[in-house]
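Checklist before submission:
- one chain only
- standard amino acids only
- sequence pasted in full

Submission:
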Amino acid sequence: MGMSAKVADRLAAGLKRFQPILSSAKTRDVNESDTSMIVSDMLAEIFGFDKYHEITRELCIRGTYCDLATKVDGKVQMIVEVKAIGIELKDQHTKQAVDYAANQGIEWVVVTNGVTWKVYRVVFAQPIDQELVLEIDMLGLNPRRDQDLGNLYLVTRDAITKSALDAYHDHLQATNKFFLAAAILSDPVLEVIRRELRRLSSDLSITVDELRSVVSEEVLKREVLDSDKAEQARKKLVRASTKMLRSKRSRDEDQEAAAPVVSPTERQPEPH
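Returned file contents:
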């Protein structure tokens, strides 16, 4: 993930410092205001945001100030919705924060009670939706475990400036069952399968449409084909394919335009 030793040391030290604080706060069942103070300190000491310039409570959305927001180079990167440490995080808390973020064109939302941190990517569609990208249990992390520190790193200022959280989100999408199913049922992949099957017999006659029917009806599970997420995956795959095709066509046109034009008089005579 490109995490430096310096950042890893800060994450481990911050985790060791705040785990007892969170445990004590949870035992005392502190209120939302006190939880928010702890979260603000965590954003600074663990996640690396400047406490006085990059963490704010002054972001006003629809006449309401959100709990916290983080900024990098003056641009808001994440809205942080904070609930009291004893409150179980629910969908309604997420929806409120996502609505705030969507209203401002902000892509990332964190909903937390100090112990549990849920990181969402806002999906700008109709209607507005969200994808859970990461969930962290601060009291369950081990400061000596690289994977735990790697998960923490994704929410840091360092990672945001390197688009590491975006890259992690893209990786999750590319490897989830809905996108894999959509990819398998695409014409290019089915054509490869068809060619492999023809190795069994040169006389084997099978079309891409026949393969698609068999794979969708007898190989793949229905949940990866007939659901809203499956439809979203298919649409995203089509958009990506179209974008790539347009990019290739544009490069071909640029190369054609840049190629030198040889007039008929400049052409060499063909040898007899």
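Reviewer check: Residues 122 and 130 are 5 Å apart (CA to CA).
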